[in-house]
Amino acid sequence: MAFPGGPMGGGGAGNMDPEMIQQQQMIKFMQNTMESCPGKTVMAGGMGFALGGVFGLFMSSMRYDTPLSSGMPGGVGTGNIPSIPLKEQLKIGFKDMGKASLSSAKNFGYIGALFAGTECVIEGFRAKNELSNGVAAGCITGAFLAKGGGPQAMAVGCAGFAAFSAAIDSYMRMESDDRAADPIM
């Protein structure tokens, strides 16, 4: 049986030219890398960094406590804004947006990498793909992020991240055929 894009006939790799063999090896290598725990961790961290950067940029553009407002220490103040040239105002605003965006990107990347790595390790040890893996990873991630606040903060972080992870995971694992069970529709 011949599949589209595959070799003709029932032959194995013997019928493939060296370029196709190399291409298949590269595809297999990339799949194995992306399915490994370090690969998942790096991908989640990178995607979290990118999403966090966009989110931080958007949120910083909506803030009221900008460096040009009088409420911030070192702020220019509301009365002096017209006296500052437009180019300088834009420079201050974009610099502030860049700082906020980078800070948010780092946080999202760190949280994404920590959660994905923890979940992958738990899944590897348990050899099961279940909802409880994500809940346990959420608990560990939340507790680790709150470690500076003491044991009570760690417990709250554990519970919060575990609940959020359970909610997202259970939604993602829902059967897509049953439209009545979808709470968003």
TrEMBL record:
Keywords, sorted A to Z: Membrane, Mitochondrion, Mitochondrion inner membrane, Protein transport, Translocation, Transmembrane, Transmembrane helix, Transport
Gene Ontology cellular-component terms listed: TIM22 mitochondrial import inner membrane insertion complex
Keyword Zinc: no
Its membrane topology: Multi-pass membrane protein
GO molecular function: mitochondrion targeting sequence binding; protein transmembrane transporter activity
Gene Ontology biological process: protein insertion into mitochondrial inner membrane
Main location: mitochondrion
Subcellular location: Mitochondrion inner membrane
Residues forming coiled coils: none
Membrane-crossing segments per the record: none
Pfam families: Tim17 (PF02466)
InterPro entries per UniProt: TIM22 (IPR039175)
Protein function: Essential core component of the TIM22 complex, a complex that mediates the import and insertion of multi-pass transmembrane proteins into the mitochondrial inner membrane. In the TIM22 complex, it constitutes the voltage-activated and signal-gated channel. Forms a twin-pore translocase that uses the membrane potential as external driving force in 2 voltage-dependent steps.
Quaternary structure and interacting proteins, as annotated: Component of the TIM22 complex.
Family to which the UniProt record says this protein belongs: Belongs to the Tim17/Tim22/Tim23 family.
Protein name: Mitochondrial import inner membrane translocase subunit TIM22
Naturally occurring in which organism (per UniProt): Cercospora berteroae
